[in-house]
Amino acid sequence: MKKAKYRIGVIGTGFIARGLIFALADHPHLALSRVLTRRDPKTISNISIKQEQIISDVDEMIKNSDLVVECSGDVIHGTKAIEKVLVAGLPVVTMNSELQIITGTYLARKGTLIEAEGDQPGSLAALDAEIRGMGFEPMVYGNIKRFLNLNPLKDEMEYWSKRQGISLNQVTAFTDGTKVQIEQALVANGLGATIACRNLSGIPCKALEDGAYRLAEIADAINQPISDYVLSPIAPAGVFIVAKHAAEQKPYLEYLKLGQGPYYVILRPYHLCHLEIPKTIMNVLNGHNGYKFNNGQQPNIQVVAVAKRNVEKGEFIKRGLGSFDVRGEAVKIRNAPQGVPIGLLQEATLIKPVPEGQIISFADVELPKTRALEIWQQTLAEVK
């Protein structure tokens, strides 16, 4: 008798969600059940599934799913939906680092919440587990960024948004560095690392190894593993870890072309986003314990909103992430406890002016009351 496929619910209808839906259509063990959206389901025409599968009711998704994948990219909407799914007893896989660093710690206490392999944080977590199994001691969890413009122009971002098929918010957050800050904050929290400085080091380099070794020297100087990135226009679109190993392994590692040490750069030269999510789904459903990555139980790093320009009292910010008003910078939470996480800056009104380059604090802005904000305030109270 042929075994029925696992039913997978998807929250989101954006770039990653659509790619995952296509991937599920060909999977031997997984089948799409429902797609949750805030939009009118009748207006969604770029997903080749049955109209009745596109819904706006979380309860209907829960009833028709064995596991839910959240990849909306929205902290406030995603948090509300995930909490309900977890309370109902279903596991949740996310590809939403923005959500993880704000509400992920709290939500993980409600049930199974795992950040998928495929995006840079999940790829680094998987690589971490792999090399630790070979005896390496990670020092640097590295992301690779090819281009950075802290204040991109709107017409340029509109061009790239249309060309790449992703939203204007997304392409702007990628370009101004907010996304890499968020990804590396999640890596630091989830893998027990720290950051070397506010806004990360972001070492410019031509050869990946040059930047990686410089980051390793920084980690050595503070005697802690760090989460950071290099800025290299020619490096592959992947992730890397710089690690040490036992002295007796030095001749073997040199023979294996990893160099003379003491720093060894282990590169994963790709991350395939939605194509790798099914791997995490299957691991969760089958009870595999080797990969359980999320924001951790004691987060210490957050990404706060920083003004890109002089923002005046009374201005309204519809969505901070990917805007032309603010960008995100990674900080140690204890150094900026009143800084507003950029993922919470939605439907917000400035009640004080904020000069360019300054962190926006809770005293500067009026935020709507949301479950995500409430959870962040609880998490913040626990930070040591």
Which short descriptors sum up this protein?
single chain, 384 residues, alpha/beta, Type Iii Antifreeze Protein Isoform Hplc 12, 3 domains, 5-stranded mixed sheet
Written overview of the protein:
This protein is α/β, with parallel strands linked by helices. It has 3 domains: 6-117 and 275-285, NAD(P)-binding Rossmann-like Domain (Rossmann fold), CATH 3.40.50.720; 120-271, no CATH class; 301-382, Antifreeze-like/N-acetylneuraminic acid synthase C-terminal domain (Type Iii Antifreeze Protein Isoform Hplc 12, Alpha-Beta Complex), CATH 3.90.1210. The chain contains 12 helices and 16 strands. The strands form 4 sheets. Strands 3-2-1-4-5-6 form a 6-stranded parallel β-sheet, with helices on both faces. Strands 8-9-7-10-11 form a 5-stranded mixed β-sheet, with helices on both faces. Strand 8 (203-204), helix 9 and strand 9 form a beta-alpha-beta unit.
